[in-house]
Design a protein that fits this description.
Belongs to the NAD(P)-dependent epimerase/dehydratase family. Dihydroflavonol-4-reductase subfamily. This protein has 335 residues and is of the alpha/beta class. It is 37% helix and 14% strand.
Length: 335
């Protein structure tokens, strides 16, 4: 148990909500950032050991008040593609990460856990996921800003690019500041139920990656995507475990505390087949309507999380699929 105060950015986000819940269960005190319009609503929840501070733009806002008394930072906030222009998306991802790190380091904070993505290791958008390769958390996507502009119409590419360029900026910062201790978490595609202590999504546009299983239970096949799957609760678990890791001497640790987190490979066709059995009341499309994978599926090597984080067992994909389906049915009834 710990009485440390942890700052969590983007506290109402899908992953961040579970990070907060698990930190509180582990005995930490948590301060979450959210936009001003949300803070007043959040404060009404009155959760013990959880407080909020308004940060309206993570890329430029002053974090002075937010960082007071903080022992470590878990930076989760990140833009999703399609919500803003390409330039704004990239700025929020990259400058948002650097703004938090710069101000926190100046405030004397040394411990950081940052949310990245499996997209940071892929060679290029979807193609590398279906090339029969094996990716480790020592691999890096060779994405450049020029590549982003050339692929601006591809939402997958834009999301992966924002993640890899932001994470590279984080590790560059770590090299320049050997007093800081950084870990990054690289989850596969994240699904699962919503954190209980925060407001639920109020419409389909707020579902994030859960829009894929939402399509599945409403009679359509989700868009083609890499069939990696990890439960949001396991992603939060990885953040908390990384926070508890002892420091490693920099700069030798730069890039070493980087952890791919993924429960396995599980296609939407497999998910549909299973849900037809355990949730027959759902409107699942006929199995022959699901497209085959366009190539041999590449694997994600999660051995570093096993060996260094001591991660243990993952929530199995079938449990995740059922839990997210049930959660989405419940959420939709509130709309």
């Amino acid at each position: 148990m710990s009485s440390q105060l942890i700052l969590v950015t983007g506290v109402t986000g899908f992953i961040a909500g579970h990070v907060v819940e698990q930190l509180l269960r582990a005995g930490y005190h948590v301060r979450g950032t959210a936009r001003s319009a949300k803070v007043a609503l959040l404060q009404k929840t009155n959760v013990p050991n959880l407080e909020y501070v308004a940060i309206d733009d993570v890329a430029v806002s002053d974090f002075t008040e937010a960082l007071k008394g903080v022992d470590a930072v878990v930076h989760v906030a990140s833009p999703l593609p399609g919500k803003a222009s390409v330039e704004e998306t990239m700025k929020t991802a990259i400058e948002g990460s650097l703004n938090v790190l710069r101000q926190a380091e100046k405030a004397g904070i040394k411990k950081f856990v940052v949310t990245s993505s499996f997209g940071s290791v892929l060679e290029s958008s979807l193609k590398a996921s279906f090339a029969g390769l094996n990716f480790t958390d020592s691999d890096w996507a060779p994405t450049t800003h020029e590549d982003v502009l050339a692929n601006a119409e591809d939402p997958y590419y834009l999301y992966f690019a924002s993640k890899v360029l932001a994470e590279k900026a984080v590790w560059d910062f770590a090299r320049e500041h050997p007093n800081v201790d950084v870990a990054t978490i690289l989850p596969g595609l994240v699904f699962g139920p919503y954190a209980a202590i925060f407001p639920l999504p109020s419409n389909v546009s707020q579902l994030g990656t859960n829009s894929f299983p939402w399509a599945l239970i409403n009679g359509t096949a989700p868009p083609m995507a890499p069939p990696y799957i990890v439960d949001v609760r396991d992603v939060a678990k990885a953040h908390v475990l990384a926070l508890g890791l002892g420091p490693v001497v920099q700069p030798e640790s730069v890039g070493k505390k980087r952890f791919l987190i993924n429960a396995g490979i599980y296609t939407w066709k497999q998910a549909a087949e299973y849900l037809k059995v355990v949730r027959p009341e759902l409107n699942i499309q006929d199995l022959d309507k699901f497209a085959d994978m366009p190539g041999p599926i590449s694997t994600l090597d999660t051995s570093r999380a096993r060996d260094v984080l001591k991660f243990g067992e993952y929530i199995d994909p079938q449990t995740t699929v059922v839990d997210v389906a049930d959660a989405l049915v419940t959420v939709s009834k509130t709309w």
